[in-house]
């Protein structure tokens, strides 16, 4: 998770996404609901869920001490068995402890639709955007985890901080090259 440069506005970025990628990054507020419009079945495939170190920029966003272990959930959202996005959720210890039963029972459910959206106790911060060049360590890890190996490609993504009763968590969504055209 190192060496990523995040931008508050997609227009500030030197690299410009394709129209398809731009639509996916900027139009859906809730990505999972938009993904459900382009497939018959949307599933969560868990890559890993464990306590581990968060990156320095994640710790800074979450007001977390860098020597604390965060609960990190890495997943693919798959539409009709095709990985569409990679997701990374970083949950600081105080947030995890305060809402332990909700996180412990999450399983393969969508975290947004299960815990975050339609919850009056949750607020969402603004989006930040990223461009990840092919062969970046994160890109390599993602492509190595794909069920059907693909050639390496540049990735685009977004992230935002959610707050549950003033307990923060970070959600990052990276778009994979298999993502179909956006449908409004």
Can you describe this structure in just a few lines?
With 184 residues, the protein is an alpha+beta fold. 25% of the residues lie in helices and 33% in strands. The protein has 7 helices and 7 strands; from the N terminus they run ααβαββαααββαββ.
Task: Kindly describe this structure.
There is one protein chain. The protein is α+β, with helices and mostly antiparallel strands and 184 residues long. The protein contains 7 helices and 7 strands. It has helices at residues 19-26, 31-36, 56-61, 93-98, 100-104, 111-116, 137-145, and strands at 42-53, 69-79, 82-91, 122-124, 128-132, 155-164, 167-175. Strands 1, 2, 3, 4, 5, 6 and 7 form a 7-stranded antiparallel beta sheet that branches. The longest helix has 9 residues, at 137-145. It is globular. The N and C termini lie far apart (31 Å).
Write the layout of secondary structure elements.
Layout (H helix, E strand, L loop, with lengths): L18 H8 L4 H6 L5 E12 L2 H6 L7 E11 L2 E10 L1 H6 L1 H5 L6 H6 L5 E3 L3 E5 L4 H9 L9 E10 L2 E9 L9
Antiparallel strand pairs: 1-2, 2-3, 3-7, 4-6, 5-6, 6-7
Task: Fill in the keyword field for this structure.
single chain, 184 residues, alpha+beta, Chorismate lyase, 7-stranded antiparallel sheet, 7 helices, 7 strands, 33% strand
Overall shape = globular
What is the CATH superfamily? Answer: Chorismate lyase-like
Total of DSSP H or I helical runs spanning 4+ residues = 7
Uncertain spans, ≥5 residues at pLDDT below 50? none
Q: What's the N-to-C terminus distance? A: 31 Å
Instruction: State the CATH topology.
Output: Chorismate lyase
Number of structurally distinct domains: 1
C-alpha Rg, in Å?
A: 16 Å
**Protein structure class:** alpha+beta
Largest sheet: 7 strands, antiparallel
Helix content: 25-40%
Written as H for each helix and E for each strand, in order along the chain, the element string is: HHEHEEHHHEEHEE
Give the CATH class.
Answer: Alpha Beta
Reported CATH architecture: 3-Layer(aba) Sandwich
What number is the mean pLDDT? 91
Number of strands: 7
Tell me what portion of residues adopts beta-strand conformation. 25-35%
